[in-house]
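In this section we walk through a basic example: taking a raw amino acid sequence and producing a predicted 3D structure, encoded as discrete structure tokens. The instruction is simple. Fold the sequence below.
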Amino acid sequence: MPSRLQSPYRSHKNSLYMSTFALPSRTPAAVHPWAPRFAQAITGLLCLEAVLFQTPAVVAVAAALIVLALIGPRWSPVAYLFALLPVKPAELEPSRPVRFAQWMALVMLAAAIVLLYAGAPTAGWILTGMVAVVALFSAISGICVGCIAWKQIARRAGSAHDLKSAFGLSGTGPWLLVVTADNCPRCGPAKAAIHDAARGHEIVDVDLDEHPEAGALPIWSVPAGIVIAPSGEVGMVKTGRIGAVEAAELVSALAP
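The resulting token sequence is shown next.
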């Protein structure tokens, strides 16, 4: 029988960045994968404009927008702008790495503002330029530098190494984790496909909304299937579109 790590209090109020103005007051555990890139583009363009035209006030505006985003989508003008776009996600992205990236940018911009108004403009503009470059690179490429940094820090801190303890894995293993989130169109079919292919193997359902620490796992989107070896190390990983073929591959990776 599959074990479950899910909250009994599931609510559609946790959806984020859909085409609606009913935005949540707090950032949910999983977000639209384009939303961070949209925000990064705005941050990058504002910082680029500030550097090119030497306008410190624009740096403060960029930092303020990040602060509002960290407080919650309901208070963020950027979230409202993104909500106007008719884009519905097929899969979602863990939000913890995204929030760490936002904190990185905010700290750098705060330091830049202090330097700009404290008589060290060169250092301030260098920091602002660095934020502009990283933000625009992330927005264009889809490679979130801050997200990668967060995952590396989380792993070094041990939150992703002792997976057996983190997710209550019992027995000798191996185990197959199925990571899903609310309002994720592909999560239901992917979960069903993996359970259908399981054939008595140990399956652990991980609800990202209930267990946001699962964002430290080596996944960039949900749904995700992750094979955990008896040692606790991560084996095969499948994310995104998971059908019968991908589910069968995950289950076959459980064989000793």
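Looking at the output, two observations stand out. The radius of gyration is 20 Å. The domain at 3-7+158-252 is CATH 3.40.30.10 (Glutaredoxin). In the next section we compare this with other chains.
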